[in-house]
Design a protein that fits this description.
By secondary structure, this protein is an all-alpha fold. The chain is built from 11 helices and no strands. The chain starts with a helix and ends in a 45-residue tail after the last helix.
């Protein structure tokens, strides 16, 4: 039965049509929404299966315009796989898929997508507790957006603020949050949907509160959390395993409270492109 399905699908998509490209766009959008409710293990199975089909479609000869759109879809799918692997605690694999996503996004020539995949990569680095590198990659994600107002830029600015807060840089953290608020105010309604490809005010307030907690500003942190709680459609982000959580510094960073210089902890090894 599966062989028959593939034969029919191949015959229909040998020459990729605009309709089939739209189908891929809808599928990617559905996966982006699924990150908010589907268990990560099940989602990973779906994503890898569809990525295999996408890779087969990409391997066929296409006009340049079709290749560009498929390349963009590959970047989105690889980014979602990276995000899902991070939720499962597979940080090295997440970095590898993140590299694939970056290469594809840059090849597609889409600044907003290049920004988004780099923002996702910054989060992966953040959850290895290499917060200095996470801040740097978050800045690169914002630079990749250029003048384009997009989800990747605000996601990266919020992450940069959290990293600066852990490092004990309150001015830099406040500047990054202000930048995130400015970008968020200019996003379209489609950009604030409940999806891995969206970002909303509830998420920003959650991230702001997290940054303020690391700065030991309990009053402002509580205010940010209350504002997040009062907003509708507030699916707050779930940190990956071992991630810095509100009200709790990573174990390797708690020494900061006693005034000692924090040390950099183990970082992910060299990322390999996923196959």
């Amino acid at each position: 039965m599966e062989q028959l399905r593939r034969q029919v699908t191949d015959s229909l998509t040998t020459s990729t049509s605009m309709a089939s490209l739209d189908d891929w766009d809808r599928l990617v959008a559905a996966h982006g929404r699924a990150t908010r409710y589907q268990p990560a293990r099940l989602l990973l199975d779906d994503l890898t299966t569809d990525f295999t089909d996408l890779s087969e479609a990409f391997a066929r000869p296409h006009p340049a315009s079709v290749t560009r759109r498929l390349t963009r879809t590959i970047a989105q799918m690889a980014g979602l796989i990276s995000l899902t692997l991070l939720k499962l605690g597979a940080r090295h694999a997440a970095r590898s898929w993140g590299r694939t996503a970056r290469l594809a996004a840059d090849e597609a020539g889409d600044p907003a997508l290049s920004s988004w995949v780099r923002a996702q990569d910054a989060y992966t680095i953040f959850y290895t507790f290499d917060v200095r590198q996470a801040a740097l990659v978050a800045q690169q994600a914002q630079a990749a957006a250029g003048r384009t107002v997009c989800v990747g830029a605000v996601l990266a600015a919020a992450l940069e603020a959290r990293a600066h807060a852990i490092l004990g840089h309150p001015t830099d953290a406040d500047t990054a949050i202000t930048r995130a608020e400015t970008i968020l105010s200019a996003l379209t309604p489609d950009d604030t949907t409940d999806s891995a490809f969206g970002y909303n005010e509830a998420q920003l307030r959650f991230h702001h509160g997290n940054a303020l907690t690391h700065l030991h500003d309990s009053r402002r942190a509580g205010e940010a959390q209350r504002r997040a709680g009062a907003l509708p459609h507030r699916r707050l982000p779930r940190p990956g395993p071992g991630a810095p959580r509100p009200g709790r510094l990573p174990a390797t960073r708690r020494r900061d409270r006693r005034g000692r210089q924090p040390r950099r902890t183990g970082t992910a090894g060299p990322a390999r492109a996923a196959t």
